[in-house]
Design goal:
Layout (H helix, E strand, L loop, with lengths): L9 H9 L9 H10 L4 H28 L16 E2 L2 H8 L2 H4 L3 E5 L6 H14 L4 E5 H11 L5 H10 L2 E5 L8 H14 L4 E6 L3 H4 L6 H12 L2 E5 L1 E2 L2 H4 L12
Parallel strand pairs: 2-5, 2-6, 3-4, 4-5
Antiparallel strand pairs: 1-7
Helix pairs in contact: 3-6, 7-8, 7-9, 8-9, 9-11
Length: 258
């Protein structure tokens, strides 16, 4: 006769919930069966179920940090599509993925035409950082500077600037796509100067850095900020056709009936 499968008693369920370990109940029945089949010692079984809980908490924590950082959950390095329609320095991407530039508080520019995946790669780097418990904030440039301008109305501007300066990795997407007025240029200058050698910054742009100068209202502030950013910046240039164009559906012509 086959021995009955181990069950989780109501008493054990109550104990786990009181210890805030209730999520262990999702995998505990299967682990009990596995322990019985493999005749695991008590210590080995305990290590197994606690390792499950640590892994679950790590995954949950990473998801929460990524959401708070403003990262797109679909944009990961694992989901990045490497194909013949684009070209880039693979060694450079490999280097950026180590996040050594974050540890060294340096900058990275991800450059290229619209639609080649610059945002995807920037968010993918942010996802890796969140897995390592690194503080990240990601925001599109136009939204960022509009938000900072609005923050002046309720006297929260200084607080918002301090938060941007404090994160370990700041991702600014689509930088210099639109011209920045004097107020936004001043905000960008302050962020760049304060983060210089104190935090890592990633900028994505479809313009070359030299072109950024023409997009900022104050040439002196623009040059000062850019000098600091470029002094320690990696550049990953992606060339190729927009993935949006590649995904555009096509219609196969049909022959007309005669």
């Amino acid at each position: 006769m086959t021995a009955p499968a181990p069950t989780v008693t109501p008493e054990l369920r109550q104990v786990l919930r009181r210890l805030k370990l209730g999520k262990m109940l999702d995998t505990l029945p299967e682990r009990l069966v596995l322990a019985k089949q493999n005749k695991l010692a008590h210590a080995a079984f305990l290590e197994l179920v606690l390792a499950d809980e640590i892994d679950r908490r790590d995954r949950t924590g990473t998801t929460q940090r990524a959401r708070a950082a403003g990262l797109d959950p679909t944009m990961t390095l694992e989901s990045w599509e490497d194909h013949d329609a684009i070209t880039y320095d693979h060694d450079m991407l490999t280097e950026l993925a180590t996040l050594r530039f974050v540890e060294d508080r340096q900058c990275a520019f991800i450059l290229g035409p619209v639609g080649v995946g610059k945002t995807h790669l920037a968010h993918a780097l942010g996802q890796i950082a969140c897995r390592r418990r690194i503080r990240v904030h990601a925001e599109r440039a136009d939204r960022l500077f509009k938000r900072l301008k609005a923050a002046r109305l309720d006297n929260s501007h200084e607080h918002e600037i301090r938060k941007l300066i404090a994160v370990d990795l700041l991702l600014i997407d689509d930088f210099a796509l639109h011209a920045l007025d004097a107020v936004a240029t001043g905000d960008f200058y302050e962020i760049a100067v304060e983060r210089h050698l104190s935090g890592a910054t990633v900028l994505t742009s479809n313009r070359e850095p030299i072109e950024w100068l023409g997009q900022l209202a104050d040439p002196l502030l623009a040059q000062s900020a850019l000098d600091r950013l470029q002094s320690s910046a990696y550049e990953l240039v992606i060339e190729g056709e927009s993935y949006r164009r590649r995904q555009k559906p096509t219609i196969t012509p049909t022959r007309r009936a005669r």
